[in-house]
Write a structure and sequence with these properties.
By secondary structure, this protein is of the alpha/beta class. About 40% of the residues lie in helices and about 25% in strands. It has three domains: about 170 residues, Molybdenum Cofactor Biosythetic Enzyme, Chain A; about 80 residues, Alpha-Beta Plaits, CATH 3.30.70.2860; about 160 residues, CinA-like (Maf protein, Alpha-Beta Complex), CATH 3.90.950.
């Protein structure tokens, strides 16, 4: 029987909805990739009785129990003392942990407080797990055939501990089948339509391969997973399956392995020494935000005009009052003018312009909420297209931003291939 894992997240803030549990999703993905799939996720309060009860229960079922939360310096963080009692341990000061804490506080120019020093206390029968990003160490026990690991709930600290120590240690301890994953990124087609397109392909999958659909607004990730004893055989089969799937979905495929559109666009712009600017109305600067979140984007992104109001479109993007009166702000004429002026003012190779009705109000019979015009301009001309993204404001902004970046990606490829 293959080993399995469970996750226990600790914190009242999780139960009252003040904090969203992103840790479990990240841990679940990583554990699946090393052959220790998560079979149950439990969120509990900081109450010591709850911690003891649910930990004992999980240890009856799982080979690995991963705990996050409750390791902070304040009095409401009770996980460490409760675990010490549970594993019949004494808390002792660990010199290595104290050195880590002193080093981190020095970098941040903070003095060592009594609460910080208390974080160097660890159960005397645990394996201390170094925390490269914070003051609270992780703790590892191997008890009655179950590995129990307690980690901070702060996501970047938990991830650092998992990646530098916990995942490698687990792989050394548990012999699991070789698992390969390949993620194919698609945009512009819904999950059900994509599934219909891939139905025959999916039915023909080898028995040791599976397909999963991971939809989000505007795009669908398709993940192929395979298990086996030979890595070479798995890689060869995976390569063939990936190639055939991409061929079927080629009109909607844009990349592999969770690469974002802004990353891919940034790579294309950098590779071809091209520049970009944006003129945004309905997206409110979101495209510029996505582009500039990529390190090194200053090499190709010159700037943005967020022309939300019509008077800003008129003043800075040369949209005329006559054009607005005749066609409306959400129109081909206006969005193309926005793109042309943006290209001219910023002197870039490409520009993106958006104008739409994000909602929930502002729509009409002829232009309902979700109606969005997007234009891509370059020295070779302008491409514009109208979309209907639906009635949800936030999803409209996300879909418009992704669609605009994908249109830009396609145009860059067209122009660079043609030259």
């Amino acid at each position: 029987m293959n080993p399995v894992s469970e996750i226990i997240t600790i914190g009242d803030e999780l139960l009252i909805g003040q904090t969203i549990d992103t840790n479990s999703a990240w841990i679940g993905e990583k554990m699946s990739m090393i052959g220790l799939p998560v079979k149950r996720i439990i969120s509990i309060s900081d109450n010591p009785d709850e911690i003891r009860t649910f930990l004992a229960d999980s240890m009856q079922r799982a080979d690995v129990v991963l705990i996050t939360g409750g390791l902070g310096p304040t009095n409401d963080d009770r996980t460490k003392t409760t675990l010490a009692e549970f594993f019949k341990a004494e808390l002792v000061e660990d010199e290595t942990v104290l050195e880590d804490i002193l080093h981190l506080l020095k970098l941040r120019n903070f003095p060592l407080s009594a609460l910080n020093r208390a974080q160097a206390l660890v159960p005397d029968n645990c394996r201390v797990v170094h925390n490269p990003q914070g003051t609270a160490p992780g703790m590892w026990w191997d008890k009655d055939g179950t590995v129990v690991v307690s980690m901070p709930g702060v996501p970047f600290e938990m991830k650092a501990i998992m990646e530098t120590s916990v995942l490698p240690w687990l792989q050394d301890q548990f012999k699991t089948p070789i698992i390969l994953h390949k993620t194919i990124m698609t945009i512009g087609l819904g999950e059900s339509n994509l599934a219909s397109m891939l139905e025959d392909w999916e039915k023909a999958l080898p028995s040791n391969f599976t397909l999963a659909y991971l939809p989000s607004p505007g795009m669908v990730k398709v993940r192929i997973s395979g298990t086996g004893d030979s890595e070479d055989v798995l890689k060869s089969t995976m390569a063939g399956l990936t190639e055939s799937l991409v061929e079927i979905a080629k009109d909607y495929f844009y990349g592999f392995d969770d690469i974002s559109l802004e990353e891919l666009v940034g790579h294309l712009l950098t590779k071809n020494h091209l520049s970009l600017s944006t003129a945004e109305s309905c997206t409110g600067g979101n495209i510029a935000r996505l582009v500039t979140r990529i390190p090194g984007s200053s090499a190709y992104f010159k700037g943005s005009i967020v022309a939300y109001a019509n008077e800003i479109k008129m003043k800075y993007l040369d949209v005329s009052q006559k054009m607005l009166s005749e066609y409306g702000a959400v129109s081909r004429n206006v969005v193309e003018q926005m793109a042309k002026s943006c290209l001219l003012h910023f002197k870039t190779d490409f520009s993106i312009a958006t104008s739409g009705i994000a909602g929930p109000d502002g729509g009409s019979i002829f232009k309902p909420v979700g109606t969005t015009w997007i234009a891509i301009a370059s020295k070779n001309g302008i491409l514009s297209q109208c979309f209907q993204f639906g009635e949800h404001r936030e999803r409209n902004v996300v879909k418009a931003s992704q669609t605009a970046l994908n249109m830009l990606r396609i145009e860059i490829l067209k122009e660079t291939i043609s030259t």
